[in-house]
Write a structure and sequence with these properties.
The complex is a heterodimer.
Chain A (H helix, E strand, L loop, with lengths): L8 E12 L2 E13 L4 E5 L6 H8 L8 E10 L2 E2 L5 H7 L4 E4 L3 H4 L6 H12 L4 H14 L5 H4 L9 H13 L5 E5 L7 H18 L2 E6 L2 H7 L2 E6 L2 E7 H6 L4 H9 L39 H5 L5 E4 L2 E3 L3 E2 L4 E2 L3
Parallel strand pairs in A: 3-8, 3-9, 6-7, 7-8
Antiparallel strand pairs in A: 1-2, 1-4, 4-5, 9-10, 10-12, 11-12, 13-14
Helix pairs in contact in A: 4-5, 4-7, 5-7
Chain B lengths: L1 H28 L14 H10 L6 H25 L20 H36 L4 H15 L2 H15 L21 H38 L2 H8 L4 H30 L2 H6 L5 H10 L3 H29 L7
Classes of the chains: A alpha/beta, B mainly alpha.
Bound molecules: adenosine-5'-triphosphate and magnesium ion.
Chain lengths: ~325, ~350
Amino acid sequence: MPDGAAPILEVSDLKTVFTTRGGEVHAVNAVSFELAPGELLGVVGESGSGKSVTMMSLIGLLPMPPAEIRGGQVLFDGVDILKMTDDELRDVRGSRIGFVFQDPMTSLNPVFTVGFQIMEPLRKHMGMNKKQARARAAELLELVGIPEADARLRDFPHQFSGGMRQRVMIAIALSCDPKVLIADEPTTALDVTIQAQILELVKELRLKLGMAIIWITHDLGVIAGIADRVMVMYGGQVVEQAKVKDLFADPQHPYTRALLETLPSVTGKRSERLKTIEGQPPAIPEQPTSCSFRERCSLAFDRCARENPALYQPQKGHDVACFWDVKTGGPRDG
Amino acid sequence: MLNYTIRRLLFTIPTLLFISLIIFLLLDLAPSDPTGNLPLSIPAEVREQIRQSLGLGEPIHIRYYKWLVQFFINEPLNIIEQMFDITIGDGDRLRVTSWSTRSPVVDLVLERMPQTLWVVGMSYVVGVLIAIPIGVYSAYRQYSWFDQTGTFISMVGFSVPTFFTGVLLIVIFSTIVPTDSFFWLPSIYDTTHKVTDLASFGFQIRQMIMPVFVLGLFNAAQISRYMRASMLDNLGLDYVRTARAKGLTENVVLLVHVLRNSLIPVVTVIALGIPQVFGGAIITEQVFKVNGLGHLLIGGIEAADIPLVQTLTFIFAVLIVFFNLIADILYGILDPRIRYD
Ligand SMILES: Nc1ncnc2c1ncn2[C@@H]1O[C@H](COP(=O)(O)OP(=O)(O)OP(=O)(O)O)[C@@H](O)[C@H]1O
Ligand SMILES: [Mg+2]
């Protein structure tokens, strides 16, 4: 990851709101982050923290209504995606930004052959004819490690196993040589050995093709293995972001620390029970005016109830949104 | 698939035999006398002779057997002879004959079929063609004014019976509207009308408008609901998001990805509805005096014409069994996940 290179993706102050019967849900609240070319950014956070909604907002995949993007800027290669017309956005989607979703069992269309589904973006974005697209699709299947690619193009999704289908999804996402690949919990629905294989595949493809990747997961263990940088989300906000080794060596936010403590440790005593974070993730009905982690935080003090902490940089490249300074063991000033 | 089809076809044989037996027995139980409509002056022994000549003197299993032979062997042979203009055997065999008209039932059916197909069949086609786009668009714009209006109209469409909408239309377009107006429509369907030129074609269209509209509305109401529900089921699925993430246009997402999946159950429903085209439009045929199959059946019932009623009912049963098979096969063709062997 070349330090200082202009970011390929630059998100600032993104706000996404759902209007539901029960009122508004502020699912993404002033999220900002950057992605350098070729970088692998891990995004962690528990269920409902807004990881998926953030990524889908970037690329206009949310149903509107109920979703609405209230503000922010998403610069992709210097151009604001949020200002694009639907047509322009469609040209970016699937060609320069690829998507892989969580559940490979349902993410492919059951009534079309795998070949057809891989060829679709090739024909749409790359202007290939049927023959060229077919040849390229076979190459792609081989690239993601599916043997006998030519024959398998004619198969339907139900003839593939879960892991194989996720490989197909990756092939589709990579079909037009995207600059950014967004993988939303791509291994969560797979069993452990298959997970490991998919991880290996992505690592390998990244070396080969050099695209930047955003990898969403619940699993900090996975992040440790592949990511360059990590972003921790909580309650629709980014609460901490740092280089992987900084985050693991020196977690600043109480939520991150709690997450790290829930990781089973390889060296830890066998009998030790896995820790869980007490309490419920918050529902976010309005613009937060206090820290959303406050109720589950053992370090919370009066300021946390009055203000919502903004990101602050204890050291270069490490942001945290917390009023408590772990270095001094007391409230942070400013 | 071929295996499955053959197996299913073989299986229809006992099914149909059983159905025919039930129909036969039920009608035999009915307390009706084919001579009941004859003048009272006919003496009792002549009536008895008439009954004997109609074959009623024989025991029921003999009559059933004869009907089976006539319907399953003689009639098909006859049709083959006519189609290829040949003579099989001596070409002289007993046919299922209507008591009231003394003409072969199959000939009557073939004679009435065109009217039914024109009016009722056309209304089904029209209904389907209207229903699918409406269903698709209603689902895509769920709760929009278009969807709400569609919901309202289809509620009306299938809750108001066709004999009501039919009569209502007749009252408006055949009686209130003056006869010389452009909007006047004939209330009676003229079967003898022949299309020879543009003007007579115009008249044919005119006389079809009301019955086709009444039945078409009814069919469209039902099918558009199925279509809408099926689209809605699919629109929320993950593969739709994948299709959008590939950068496909909404048209492709909707009309290729979602529609192809949503059509699977709808096509089945449409196939299962086809037999109703033949049998289920009895009332509309009565209202507009279309002398199609429904009309024939009602006439047969009124005249206690048991061979006619029996054969027609059985033909409807055959159609139902047949289109059930078609629906299952279509399902297998449209949905690659279904394997029948
Ligand atoms: N269509 C919707 N309507 C209303 N609220 C929604 C909708 N989609 C998501 N949300 C809300 O947005 C919030 C963030 O959801 P999101 O799916 O981004 O979480 P996530 O971090 O991806 O969780 P997971 O790990 O379970 O995938 C949740 O509180 C959820 O209730
Ligand atoms: Mg998610």
